[in-house]
Amino acid sequence: ESLKDAFEKDFYIGVALNGGIIDQSDSTSLNVVKKEFNSITAENIMKSAIIHPKLDSFNFEMADKFVALGKTNDMHIHGHTLIWHSQLSPWFQDIEDSLEFKSATENHIKDLALHFKGIVNSWDVVNEALNEDGTLRNSIFLKKMGADYLSLAFKWTSEIDPDAKLYYNDYNMTNPEKRQGAIRMVKKIQEQGIKVDGIGMQGHWHLNSPSLEEIEQSILEYSKLGVQVAITELDISVLPNPWDLEGAEISQNFENSEKMNPYTKGLPDSVQIQLANRYKDIFNIFLKHKDKISRVTFWGLGDGQSWLNGFPIRGRTNYPLLFDRNLKPKAAYYSIIGLKEKF
Ligand code: G3I
What is the tally of structural domains in the chain? Predict the structure, then answer.
């Protein structure tokens, strides 16, 4: 049995793909992806800086390989991401005139939506537009276009590809203030008669936070908007978070410190079990609310490929995913597959 077989009737089970998997040079990883997952997201190659490097030219090569891989293997293809202030093409950032910026934004969205029309099944239309207190992030999009950029982004995407499912995607979506901000934002878009199909809750979570109650309540509150909830970018860091240290600031001094990087020689069994239990608990919630959840996507395949080895401190050895550095399924993998007997 595989993950995709186990959750076939519940929600898509997805994974974010890096370059080596997309260009098929890493065939070992690719085989695991094909066996285990029925949805894919590109970890980086559809972000504006990569796919749209110049005002008038696109770099579709890798993205086309990515979608071809999905199509050949009958997978749900998720596009990440149309509008994001980060990894934004430098030319975009250099546009001074507001009207020019607005038309460049419209063209960026429409060109991508058209190129992938009927191929990309769902899009992160806007990524990470909120501050932790629920107000709008003062991004270049807000500065140049005002708050309307949010509804316009959804409108422009749906005008080109009305069948694609359109998501708002962000992290810390379980934080009550941010959650209220997201709900306000989506309601405003809906009130203008513009469709939003879903909310993506990025699952960059930890062993002890957010609480299971916060996760469950968030799924319930978002779905009251009449949208689907996707758990996107799921990974669970097992390492101490520098921000949790009292009075500490992230500094280079943490690099290579044993306190911040305690498991360089492997993950102790006790933590392995803690991670498996954490995954089991959160998947219990997902299965309980499977009618509200469209997709659960892991942010990477094996532990060695995770961005969390480099964030927020470089050179750490993290173990956040279901497959180890040799792509062997971990206890966490079996703990969630085992849940199916219950549901
Ligand atoms: O490919 C280049 C390489 O040629 C170069 O030598 C190297 C030098 O830094 O950089 C490489 O690019 C890196 C890229 O990942 C591929 O590994 C970028 O520097 C690095 O910034 C980029 O990080 C990505 C990050 O988004 C960028 O913000 C992570 O892989 C990716 O996992 C992460 O994903 C984001 C989601 O898109 C949105 N939500 C949060 C999530 C985690 O930050």
Answer: 1
From 80, 87, 307, mutation site for ligand 1 pocket: most ligand atoms within 8 A of C-beta: 307
Classify residue 231: in a domain, yes or no.
Answer: yes
Q: Domain with 136 in it: what CATH number?
A: 3.20.20.80
The residues, any chain, with a CB within 8 Å of residue 161's CB and separated by 6 or more, are: 113, 114, 116, 117, 118, 120
**In ligand 1, which atom is closest to the CA atom of 307?**
32
Q: 269 in a domain, yes or no?
A: no
Token pair for residue 140?
């270049």
Output the pTM of the full model.
Answer: 0.96
Concerning whether 341 is annotated as a catalytic residue, the answer is no
Per-residue pLDDT for the chain (343 aa), expressed as one digit of tens each?
899 999 999 999 999 999 999 999 999 999 999 999 999 999 999 999 999 999 999 999 999 999 999 999 999 999 999 999 999 999 999 999 999 999 999 999 999 999 999 999 999 999 999 999 999 999 999 999 999 999 999 999 999 999 999 999 999 999 999 999 999 999 999 999 999 999 999 999 999 999 999 999 999 999 999 999 999 999 999 998 877 765 555 555 555 578 888 999 999 999 999 999 999 999 999 999 999 999 999 999 999 999 999 988 888 999 999 999 999 999 999 999 999 766 6
